[in-house]
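hiii, so i know i said id send this last week but things got crazy w the move. better late than never?? heres the sequnce for the chain we talked about at the cafe, plus the structure i predicted for it. fair warning i was half asleep when i ran it
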Amino acid sequence: MKIRDLSYGLLLMVIMITAACDPGAPVDSKAVKEEIQSRKIRKVSASDIMTRALTTGEGIQAEVTRQHLASLLVGQDGIGPCDLQSLPAVVEAQARGIDVSRISLNPRRKRRPLDSLEVAVYEAFEYATQRQLKMVPSLEEINETTLRYWAPIFMNQACNRCHGKKRVDIDDKTLKLLQEQFPEDQSYDFEEGALMGLWRIIIPKKEIIKNL
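okay and structure toks below
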């Protein structure tokens, strides 16, 4: 006998014993069926998890990008809007155990060097950009419990004032602020449409499974 069948048997036995204690109490067969149905173990395939994780990553990326661009449009002089960590979409993702970050071969602030996998993923997107190939986000399994979502970040007009050409797109005041805050800054002289970096979103599988 399967364990699941045994659990159903025990459930029915409990109901029968309860009814026997009160012979006048009717047995609600519909309620019994609903209870049994609720106890069934739903099978979730690896494909289900990957599909939902990809959708989750795309949704977070889209909303963070929207909020980020909105902050740039309403922002005044300064470089504060480039900080993503205070955006509501990032804060909400973090509350769910999802880490949202960006990587680049030309970072604004000094970070640890990219590991071999990150370099390989970056080079693949770079190759596709140079040859104007169609690009879609990608998803990889880090281990049994975690997935990682990747998507390209392209230079657009809204980024010019902080990432464009010095003293052409980036004015002297902004340039001074950047040099003071990021003395090792390499994130400038990008042309529109160039690959600036990658979105890296780390997603726990349990967060995906509980929402399936």
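btw The first helix runs from residue 3 to 21. thought thatd interest u
miss u guys!!
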